[in-house]
Amino acid sequence: MTIKVLIVDDQAMVRAGFAALLAAQPDIDVVGDAADGRQGVALARERRPDVVLMDVRMPELDGLEAARQILGLPEDAAHRPKVLMLTTFDVDDYVYEALRAGASGFLLKDAPPADLISAVRVVAAGEALLAPSVTRRLIADFAAQRPARRRAPALRLNGLTPRETEVLGLIARGLSNQEIAASLVLAEQTVKTHIGRILAKLGLRDRAQAVVFAYESGLVTPGEG
Q1: How many helices and strands, by DSSP H and E, does the chain display?
Q2: Bigger pLDDT: 220 vs 153
Q3: Which residue has the higher pLDDT, 175 or 225?
Q4: What's the CA gap between 205 and 142, in Å, rounded?
Q5: Of the given ranges (146-160, 162-176, 187-201), which has the lowest mean pLDDT?
Q6: 3-class SS at 142?
Q7: How many CA atoms lie within 13 A of 114 on its CB side?
């Protein structure tokens, strides 16, 4: 199946370079590009991409608000794209807030070309781009600055089984499904089932929000693991 991608960035050379790289892949189709967040939101609704590559800082409408608008569709909407944030900063409050809004992860603009291609495929498949240590550090840093938010999320942990709580903790430490399965001596399909139940019970959209929740609830503490 072909992955439809929309690129939103205020730098023309970045858009052109990303478009050329992605369009050369047999399973990726670049369906458009936009120079600011407002245009990006309009094109996302018109072109119905599977993945939106969204720059964080742009004129007219920044990437955070554009991501919120794109991801703000009702849960039963016929089509909801995945949003992958692009940034030149490895620590950026905008990126953390975008993850809380439902973005599927973030990628540094200076990442190797192979990482960009892989990121698009990972996000399109419904996973979150959270394995890089810089992402875990980003979420941990900002969660540590928000202790007041922890009480309500911590109470919601009570609805999880001990095994689901264990799986959530491993997700937050950046482990893949395969790594979680090996760590807990479970079948990978069983891990996927646990993750599906965790998301449903906690009312979370995806793995990215699960990681944020784990830190905000205090289940995982910054610097741990």
Answers
A1: 11, 5
A2: 220
A3: 175
A4: 20
A5: 146-160
A6: helix
A7: 0
Question: What is the radius of gyration, based on Cα positions, of the chain?
Answer: 17
Q: Locate all alpha helices (DSSP H) within 125-161, ordered by sequence.
A: 133-144, 151-156
Which tokens is 45 given? 């609704």
Show the beta-strand stretches assigned E in the chain. 3-8, 28-34, 51-55, 82-87, 106-108
Task: Evaluate whether 28 touches 124 at the Cβ level (below 8 Å).
Answer: no
Q: What is this structure's pTM? A: 0.71
Which residue pairs, CB below 8 angstroms and at least 24 apart, start in 69-76? 69/41, 70/40, 70/41, 70/44, 70/45, 71/101, 71/102, 71/103, 71/205
Assign residue 57 a region (left: φ > 0; alpha: ψ between -120 and 50; beta: otherwise): beta
DSSP category for residue 105: B
| 101 CB-near residues (< 8 Å, 6+ apart) | 64, 67, 68, 71
Check residue 101 and give left, alpha or beta (phi > 0: left; psi -120 to 50: alpha).
Answer: alpha
pLDDT of residue 24: 96
- In the prediction, which pLDDT does 131 show? 47
